[in-house]
Each structure stands twice: as C-alpha cells, then as structure tokens.
## 1
Amino acid sequence: MKLRYLTAGESHGPALCGIIEGLPAGIRVEQSDFASLQQRRRAGYGRGARARIETDEVEVISGIIGGLTTGSPVALTIRNRDFEQHAAYMHPFAADVEAGRINVPLPGHADLAGAARYGLHDCRPVRERASARETAMRVALSVLPRKLLKQLGIRSTCFVESLGGIKAAIDYAAAPETIADSVEQNGEEFLTPDSAVIQPWRDLTDSCAAENRSVGGTGAVIFWGLPVGLGSHVHYDRRLDGILAGLVMSIPAVRGVEIGMATELAQARLPAVDQIVVAGGQISHASNHAAGLEGGMTNGQPLLIRFHMKSLPGNAGVDSVDLRTGKSARPAFYRSDIHAVAAASVVAESVIAIQLASEILSLCGCENMEYLEKRIKTLVDI
C-alpha cells in the first residue's frame, strides 16, 4: 500500500489525531476543504446532540506549507470540545477514573467483547475508542487524497438509498454526474438524489425521535473517471473489491457491503456480465452491472459501492449484565443519533478515496503531482 495512515484518540478524550504518509508533494489544499467535508459528515436530519457540540476544526501539524503538501507525512488533530465535560475521568492522568466507569456493557456495541479481550471490568476504554467519533479523523485524512483524485479528473458522490425500509427512487443507469447534481440540489439533510423521499424520511425520523428509537438504512458511493487496472488479480489481498469491502465494513454499525447491485445479480434479476463493445475507437462496456470492478480491478466504468447499516444501539432499551455483580442490569442512558446513514456515506466515500489514491500512487510511482498528472495520462486506455 502506497498510502499509510493511523488514527488515535478517544470519543471524549482531549483530541483525535491522525497521520497519513505517502502523499506526493504539490497537492493544493485550503483550510475550507477540511471544514466543508467535516460539516458534511456532521450534517443530517436525525443526528444527535454530539454532532451539534463538536465543530471538528482540523489543525494541521505537519506536511502542508503554504497550502501545498510537501511529500512528508501529514499530521492532523481535531480537539474534542466535549472533553471538558468528561475531563475528571478522561484526562490521561485523571485521579477520579472511578467516576466514569461503565460497568454495564451496551448490547450491540463493542463493550462486552472488548472488555473480555483486554481483561477489563470497565467498558469505558472500549466504548471510547470503538465510537464512531473516530471516523471524524478518517474523514479529515481523506481530504488530501480527495484533492489528489480531483486534480486527476476523478469525481465522486455519496448518498442515502434507503432509510428504515423507505427507499429512494435512484436510477443507477443515469450518468454519475446527474446523480451527484441531484444530491447537491437536495441539500445535506438526507443526502439523496430523490427529492420526493425527503418528507417521508423526515416524518419517519420525527416519529422515531418521539419514540426514542433509531433506524438503519442503506448508503451508496460512486466514483467515476478512474483509470483501468487499479487493484490486481494476482493475489487475494490485492483484489480491490475485497479491500474496499473491508474498509467500508470497518465503519461502525455497517453490517453488509455490496459491489453494485450484488443481490439483484445473485437472484438473476440483472445480467451477470457486461457486453464489451467498441465505440469511437475505444473498447468499453455496454452496461455496468459489474459496478466498475472485474477480477479485483477497476475496468474504467463508474465504481459503485453500497452498504447496509443497522439501527444504532444507544437507545435500544435492551437489558444487560453488571460486570461487577454478575446480575441483570439496564445500561445507563447513552445518547444516540436517530440514524447516521448520511454521515456513514461520507465516511465510506472518504475511506474509498484514500484507497483509490493509494492504488493510483502505487501504479504510477510518483512523488509529486506534476509528474503524477503526466504519468496517469500514459496509462493504457482500453
């Protein structure tokens, strides 16, 4: 992998931090690029109080000078504003850790398994790191790979396909640009290309909020303008479909990933292959049922990744066990979003963007953007 990155930090700790290395010199970036993407992740009708507390201002520690990457590792920090409310037990050298103990694991969360693995009787260290708050840093780290892709003419969009069983009307045969334009026109509340579904989704969200429950849904990401041959067929761990599926599955509450319309292909409701044709002197495909990936590699068609997210566990109201006493207990109140499918879609787009940029850099082997832009033009067109 050309790009490597790490994140660190707890949900209610002092800050999130991240480092990404392998980026070429010369990627142009502005502070507003970080701010606008974080706002997109925080937005959405049905987000919880935490999304309103945090501003997610990204501080650049190294790797960018004068608005350009230098080729060295880029280090970022996001301060947690909510840390002040939890400092008594979340400070690295807190004296009153007992005050913040979580003795009753939350069903549907990482609490119980994490506590068992690390020999803990307190679930807080597990919950703090397993929280989806960590994805704020992965989104921040994606800003530079996104800018790299954009400079190479590669575009993307993300959106919500369904919420609580109510599906948006989406024409996946339409040009990706058309879908992206519709998403932008409909705003950030639900991130959908279908304006007609916004009110039913709003009504559903309001009813769930009144009942203090959450719902899941399906999100999607499309990238287009990709060169042919990213990924590889030569070994299982280099197949791009497997890599991308794993990255999207790493997003909290995501329980399934599909390459394109995989269920329809499995049930023979769509053709399993795309005819290869010659048009304008170029070899291409007559359709895109493969969703841009064949044999573990991009084939030049738009890349479509869809994912399914479960309802969030914070307000499930399910009994658990007190780890101190071994007796049945109800978990303490844990604030939750009504749904976070729109936010997860932004995160999915982010982790995919990082990987695609990494694949391009591995293929081209360039250390600055000037050479990379020249090199990618020499890639073989089908």
Note: The mean pLDDT is 93.
## 2
Amino acid sequence: MNSIKKANFIKKLSEMAERDILSYTENGDLAPHSTFKIGGKADFIVRVQTREALVGVLKQAREDGIKYTVIGNGSNILFSDERYEGAIILTTGMTALSCEDNIIEAECGYSLTALASRAQKLSLTGLEFAYGIPGSVGGAVFMNAGAYDGEIKNVVTKTYYYDVKNDAFGEFVGEENKFGYRESVYQEKDGLIILGARFELEKGDSSAILEKMQGFMRARSEKQPLEYPSAGSTFKRAPGYFTAKLIDEAGLKGYSVGGAQVSEKHAGFVINRGGATAADVKKLVSDIQDAVYKNSGVEIKCEIKIIE
C-alpha cells in the first residue's frame, strides 16, 4: 500500500474518530468479526456508526486506491487466512430505526433478530422467520435471506444504497430489487452499498407472533449446531433436493478437514470444531461437492462469500 495514500486514509479516519462517528484498528484480527471465527489480519478494521461515516470512508478509500469490503455481522462470510490488504468496514453500528403504522425502516447494520423482536412488540407479522438469523439488514437484503416460511423479498418493498463509483444515493423499489433464491440486484451491480431497507408488514396478534418466533427458535436449537461457530447453511438448496440429505447420503456427516467438520447434527452446516482455518473450510467444501456429485450426480453450490 502506498505510504502517502495510507497516511491520507489514516488522517481521514482519525478526523472522523474524533467526532465519534467511527472507530478503527490498524493490523486488526478478522476472526472475531465473522461467525465462523476464522480469518487472518486486515490493514484496517473500521467500525462506522453513521451513514456519513460510511460514505466518508468509502470516498476516501476510492480516492486513495485502497481496497475495501463492507460487511455487517459477518454471518455468511469466510475471511481468508492471509492478510486482507485494505479496509474491512463494519456497519453493525448503523442501527437507526423508524416505525409508522405497518412500516418499519431500518439501517443496514440493524440486527435481523432484533428487528423481528421489534416488529413483534408492535404487533406486526411477517418477520417471524427472521428471528434467530444472525445477520444484519444489509446482509439479509444482499442475500435475500430466508428461513422456514419466509424470505426478505416478501417483506421488503424498498432498499436504499450509496453508489460509490458515481458518488450518488439511490433506491430500488419492489421488483427492481431482483430478489431470487439467495439473490438480489446488489449481487449483480458493483459499487452499490446497501444503506437500509423499508419493511411493509401486516397487523397481527403480538402473542401469536411471539409464539411463532419462539417455535422457530426451538427448531433451530434442536436441528442446527448453534453451539459451534459456522456461517450458517453452507450450500444453496439444489433444485428438487434437500442439500443436507444429499450430503448425509454421501456418508459425510462428521467428515473433517483440519478443524472444519460437516456437522453431525445437521449435514448442511460446516462448523469450526476449533482451530479451523479458511483453507480447511475451502478444502472441506470442495470435498463435499465432489462426494455429493459422485454419489448422486447433483452439483451443489456454496452460498458463503469468501473475502480475500
């Protein structure tokens, strides 16, 4: 990294840190910022608190030619074991929220589980499926997160973004978001950073909503290996198949590479049994794909985003 540009970037970060709109660490460890608890170091880890801070960091990084990646809660990602030469920007401090009637608007860093709880307290139904998903609003929009009987596309009517390349703000309404199975318009277009989303829900009974949420959480606890670090479900659902069943039928439950293991509780999860590296996980994922294809002829795709 060019020393002059690095100095310029640090100066900008320091100025915003003095205003308490962000904090940052140089040569920071990435593992604590991923639910996998895996990763090397990054030149910078930046924690933004406001939209102003996020946009300011992005502008400065672009101006100085510094590589960056914006993440939320790190729940669907795998950091490389190698150094990330640039800035990892964390948005979990961006948690502004507004509620009016059946509409909730939330910033990108707002916890999806917390949002479901807030909706329940307001007697609004539609977000029960999101209770227990460890991601943030931004990540949920990016991936069109879903579980049980719901998906983000069913409740989000508008998303807001910052266009880094054109230094402009914009929004996508309805079908413009191009939500599909674990897909959105944000995976198609480079340089668009999700700032928040509008959720349109329906009036419901608060007690019934809570009961449904608690039921989903019990099901997660019973069926998923929540006691181990992971990135959630590792593979996309193969059309017409239950991916976990394909993995189980290939005899892979409990199969390990280093500290990474196919969960014995739920074969759709690759877990960090302790000391797993990104290389372990990538090798294990590749082995699973090969074994499933050999056993059933079905190609399964990894849904975890690898950041290198």
Note: The domain at 3-90 is CATH 3.30.43.10 (Uridine Diphospho-n-acetylenolpyruvylglucosamine Reductase; domain 2).
## 3
Amino acid sequence: MSCHTQDFCLGCDALLQSPPGWFRTARLGLLANQASVNKSFESVKRLIVKTGGNLRCLFSPQHGFYSEKQANMIESADFKDPESGLPVVSLYSSSREPAAGALESIDVLLIDLQDVGTRVYTYTTTIGLCIEACARAGKRVIILDRPNPISGTEIEGNVVEPPFRSFVGRYPVPMRHGLTAGEFGRFVRATENIDCDLEVVAMRGWKRGRYFDQLGIEWVYPSPNMPTLQTALLYPGMVLLEGTNISEGRGTTLPFQLFGAPFLDRKRLLGQLEPGLEGVAFRPVTFEPAFDKYMGKPCPGFQIHITDRERFKPYRLGLALLRALCVTHPDNFRWLDPPYEYEMEKLPVDILIGSATIRKRVEQGLSIREIESGREQGLQTYRKTREPLLLYPD
C-alpha cells in the first residue's frame, strides 16, 4: 500500500517503497514477529523478499516469532521458518541477545517490532541488546519505526535505579517513556555510548500526541496478552500486579483490564483507593482464569474502564492499587518471590518498579504523593537526555 507524505506511513512502508541501494546487495537479518505487518496486513518478512531483499536470517523476541508464547520465562526455541526456509533465532531463550555466530551470516539487521510504550515490555530491551551485539560484531542496525501507541508526549514513573537494572529495565528510562522503538534505539546508543552504525527509517505523518486509534490503521496484537489498545493504555500500571499474588487478568480475555483474587474484599479495597485517580472507573466483576494465577478459581475483583485517557495516569493507578491492597489485605496480600524475567534474587516488584524504595513506601501505607516523591530530578535528566534524540513533532 502506498502512502503519501500527508498521510500516516509506517517505517517499513517508507523503506520498501523506495529501497536504497544496499537493500538488494547486503545480507539482511530481520528481528520481527507476527505483528510486523504493513497497513494492509502484509508481513514485512514477505515484503522484504518480494521487493528483492537478500534476507538470510530471522530473529524473534519474547513470545516467539508467531507471538504464541505466554510471558515470564516461557522461552521459544530456534527453528526453520516453514514458509521461507530461513533460520529463526530466538532472542528469548538461553540467550537474550544475538550471538556472534548468528550475526556472521548478515551485514545489516533490520528491526521491525511494535512496542507498547512501557519500559517493562521487553521488546525495547531486546532492541537495545541487539544494538550492543551488532556494535561488537561490526554490523549495521536499521530500525523500521512504528508509533508509540499510547502517545509520545506523556512520561510517567521513576527512572530505573542502577542496582535494579534487569531484562525489564536495562536502560535509564521511566515506566511510560514516551519514545518510539526507533527513538528508544537512539536513546540506548547515546546513553550507553555504543559505537553502532544505527539508522532509523522514520514514519511519516506521526505526531507525538497521537494515539494508535487516531492513525487509521488496525491494532495487531504484538503479544498474547496485549490484544487491544485499551490493554496497552492500562499496562504501565497494571503490570505491577505481576509482582504480587493478585491476578492481573492473565488467563482471561481481558488481561490487565481485570484484576482480583479469591480473597479480595471489593468494598474495603475501593474505599482505600485515594481520590486523584482521574479518568478511570472500577466496575465490580468476578472472573475465573483459565490459566496462570488462581486457575479455575472465582476471583472477585474489578474491570478497569478508562473514561478520559488524557487525564488518566496508569502508573499512578498501579501504585495506588498496591498501596490499597497492602492496607486492606495485610494478611493475604503478598509480594511474589523470584525468579522473574531472569532475575534470581531481587523481588519481582522491585525490578518492575526499578527501585526498592517505592515498594517500601507502599508497605508503609504512605500517600501516593509521598510514594511518588523524589523522582523529579531523575525525570528532568531523562527529559533533557531524550529531547535531542526525538524524531517527531508534538
């Protein structure tokens, strides 16, 4: 599908409509999954071959090349793509970065992944690790950019503290980082001082304040539990429940939109959620997960409805929920123990948050204002570092 400069155009379409000279001569690798499609739902993998690209190898992120695997250390194996016959190298297995041997067969690594704008969504960490590995191997990296679906203007949360760097927080960004995948790659190269030949094929027609449903294209789920834009909007806060014994809705058709547990007292919990959670409503429900936490057990809880996404602060919601759960259910609520995303010692909630201090404030029942305090200096540094790396206007 063609796109004109006045229309929205994905990075993959911009590349393939006018392929540069190296496209047909360089040996290409592609990091992608089943959501790596153009506006007409055509696979970028197929389009590269159709356009004459010398594609030699495929790489897959967490959840697998077909986005079929569930989360949290459910690995995918290397295999041969039955359609193209190309090898598919998993970057969510015994290694989370491409080995030097896997890069020997290529000159250029193309990256086309739909991120969701949240630090702990591991695709950006995988992009960063690929940039690091390609720098060591002397390979070029080209990111075919895609939109930040929850807009690129809002920034929320604390910057990861160095002791809590992990696969869900390798680089110094807040939870809602406001970057596209391409901008994230530029941020990694700059902040990690990586000598990598990195290029971003920019989108056309995307502005920072635009949400995915304002682009005239359809959402294609990038992982099994990210089925809708609504899920992505809630994810920066609701993902914190992964570090607790509260179901975040996995095993239902509304992951991250539902939460609950067999012991949850809805009335008590709702009474403790502080005022100031704007743009959101809680509807009482009972659900029964088909897998994951409390499989087959009725879970009283809530469905979260976003009523005004411009005022809604998802990370604040997540912290408010943790605080309310600690206060109202001290005998039943608990933090889960490691391992979690290859971290074997630190609490999962601490690496999700990127700090132990915030978890301790939550345990003390401090106000949300007090829980969130002290993060502004880190955010100011982040904004200052981020600004010259941005590719799109407000």
Note: The chain has a mean pLDDT of 96.
## 4
Amino acid sequence: MSHSHHHHHHHTPASVEEQRSDRYRATIKVTLIGSVIDLLLGVAKIVVGYLAHSAALIADGIHSLSDLGTDAIVLYAAKHSHVEADDEHPYGHGRIETVATVALGVALIAVAVGISYDAIDRLFHPEALWVPGMWALVVAAISIVAKEAIYHYTMHMAKKYRSNMLKANAWHSRSDAISSIIVVIGVAGAMAGLNYLDAVAAVGVALMVAKIGWDLAWHSLRELIDTGLEPERVEEIRKSILGVDGVKTLHILRTRLMGGEALVDVHIQVDPQLSVSEGHQISETVRHSLIKEYDEVSDVMVHIDPEDDEVHAPNAGLPLREKLLDQLNTAWAGIDESSQIDDITLHYLEGKIDVELLLPLAVIAHDPARGEELTRRFDQIADSLSEIGQIKLRYH
C-alpha cells in the first residue's frame, strides 16, 4: 500500500503534515538500521551460542530477535498510523500501533518462559550443563558495543520527534546490551569453572525479555483505555485556554492519547450576548493556540457554552425558533404593532428564553404612552407563557 497522494485535510495546517511525514521517515530509517543489526546479531548469537555451548548466548540471541519483532511492529505501525484518516477510521489509524504492541508484549513473555524453563531444567541435571567456549565471549562483547550505539542513536531521534514508540525501541536496544553484559559474566564464570553460571545468566536474560514484554503490553493497554495526559500538562493547557480573550471560564476539559499525539475536548463559557460568529472565532483561537503551543496536541474540539451547563441542563426541552414563534404569533396577534416586528433575537439562558424584538421607531415616535402600553402588553404575554423569560422591546 503506497500512499503517494497525501490528502491535505483542511483542518491540519501543512506544517503538521510535514512534521508527520518527517517523523514517519525518521522512524523508518532508525528502525531499519536497528533491525538489520538485530537480525545479524540475533542469528550470530544463536549459531555461536549453539556451537560454543552457551545457553545464555542463545537466550540473548532470542532477545535480539525479539527486538527484531518490535522493530517490525514499529515499521508496520509507523506505516499504518501514518496513513491518513479514512471513512472507516475517521480518527486515523493510531490505535493499530497500540494493539500490535500489546500482541508483541504477550509473545515476548511466552518466549521468556520457554528459555527459563529450559535453563532451569539444565540446572537440575548438572551433567547436561554446557561449558561455553571463547567465541561466546567475543560475540557477546560485540553485541554490547553495537546495541549501546543503537540505543543512543534511536534515543536521539525519539526525543527529536517525541515518539514514544521510538523511545521504547531505544530501551530495547539498551536492554539487549545489558543482557549481553549478563552473558559475558555467565560465560566467563562458566569458563572459569562455575559451570552453572551460564544457565543462571540464561534465566537472567529471559527475565529481561519477559519484563520488556510486560512493559509493552501494560503501557499500550492503558492507552487503549484512553488514559489522559499528565495532570500538570492538563493544568498548563487549562491556563492557556483561560488566557484567550473572550473565554470567561471553562468546565469539562478532557485529554487522551492516540499514538504519539494528544486530543483535547473542552467546554468554554463565553458572554451569552455574543454573536454566533464571535463565539466561533473564540473557539478557533483556542484550538489554534493549543495546537501551536503544545507539540503533542494534534486536535482540539471546542464546545461553546453561554452559561455553566455542567451542573444541570436547564434548557433541555425548550422549543426552537419555529415552534416558539408559532406560539408567540398567536399570543400577540391582538397587538397591531406585532406585524411590524423587524427582527427577533432569542437567548436561551437559565431554563428560559429571553426574546428581543426590534421595532421601527415610528411605532412610538408620536405616542410615548403607546410605548409603555406595548411594554406592558408584551410583559403580560411573557408571564402567560412558561418558557419565556422576558420580552424586551428595542426600537430603531
């Protein structure tokens, strides 16, 4: 599946798109270099471990191949979570990465159990213990150097692109280097006459493989259950939103992670008298400022509220304009001037609808007393209809 044509979504500024594809290419490059080295090391360790009789080195070889497995997942996930959103996956494919990581974690735990079982079995039958040869030491030493180098390289890229996936991969490389150190100790000890050290080292390495598996699976499971950002970060985001001109307060601020990116949902409260377009302008400003200010935030959904509706939803069930005007037209049919109403503005606040009527000034120009009479009559109508708060008259 080669997606050469990038869909430029109207909601993602080009810079975000470019960042994504840079990040994607870097992930692929780092991971490919790592996987070639893992493949070579893994095969070398297993072959030399077998020929030079070192159970620990074989376990370490499996450890390297487990890295190859994580590399494969990283490549697959980078490719697929990088594919833009489509009709079936409107939020993109970031979760594929997460599910694949859980699967890999489970597989690694299973392999670790197998290695440990075999090594412990040998410990109970000392005559079956292997005495490793010199080559096992050499290969383990090469492995330490190679994997530590990959760790530093991958970590550098992970920090640059804020990729949790690459960060995890860097730690695999380092853990492989650490397990090779355990192998060196085990092999050297066994060669020096402590026959059982090699098998003990094999169990040590297996435990490391299991630990990797557990961490991978656990971390990704948490992401599947929509774990939010750290509280401190959410607090910073809250302050940024409140700093936007026109935002009075905010309630309901939610965040969640998807792949390496964060999604934010927020309800902000604005002055109820604003026009729709000003409310929208404020919400767009909130959205853009968060995306610009916080690297990990890739999208923000802003909900505009004229009042705090978190505690109760007082306006639920109030009629919309058309239905309401049917009632009002009937109610004020007896007032002659009602035929001259130019504009009607509705405010849905505190469980009532405030109605603002715009009338020509001519209606009261010659007869101020008529103005008071009109106000009184419209007030009576307001009192008689339970949904109406007040009816205000404005003249122009």
Note: The beta strands are 249-258, 261-269, 297-305, 343-349, 352-359, 388-395.
